Amino acid sequence: MQPILQNLHSMDAPTSPAKTPARNLNVVGYLAFTIAGIVFSFIGEDRTQGPIFLCLALICDPYDPQVKWGDRPLWVRSLPIIHLGVSAALLGYLFSQ
Predict the structure, then answer these.
(1) Domain ranges across the chain
(2) pLDDT at 8
(3) What is the torsional sign of CA 17, 23, 25, 28?
(4) For residue 79, what are the contacts with CB-CB under 8 A and spacing of at least 6?
(5) What per-residue confidence (pLDDT) applies to 97?
(6) Is the dihedral of CA 39, 82, 69, 74 positive or negative?
(7) SS3 for 35?
(8) Mean confidence (pLDDT) of the chain
(9) How much is the average pLDDT of 25-52?
(10) What gap in Å lies between CA 19 and CA 32, rounded to an integer?
């Protein structure tokens, strides 16, 4: 019975180094949705899919999520706002036709 108790105590201390955090996969999602939005805006029968994909791309924030909004550079803060404006304008244009 004594060896079992020794094994339980040895599990308290980790023997392997800590794993590095995973890469930010939001960049892949942002690029995929943006490219799909551009392609579907100009190719295909249903042109409303393009602006929808462009708006969905904004869900994937491609920048470091640990940095607060106010601490980001001006161009990083303006890019999602411009992206949203272009997406909304394209969607409004398609709905007006």
Answers:
(1) 22-96
(2) 54
(3) negative
(4) none
(5) 82
(6) positive
(7) helix
(8) 82
(9) 90
(10) 28
From 38, 28, 36, select the one nearest 62 (Cα to Cα): 28
Evaluate if residue 36 carries a pLDDT over 90.
Answer: yes
Write the CA distances from 83 to 17, 30, 61, 89, integer angstroms.
41, 11, 12, 10
- Residue 27 tokens, joined: 């960049």
- Residue found under tokens 């490219």: 35
Query: Which stretches of 1-97 are DSSP H helices?
Result: 2-10, 26-42, 49-57, 74-96
Residue 22 is encoded by which pair of tokens? 């995973």
79, burial (CB in 10 Å: exposed 0-12, middle 13-18, buried 19+): middle
Do residues 61 and 28 make contact, with C-beta atoms less than 8 angstroms apart?
no
61 token code pair: 């924030």
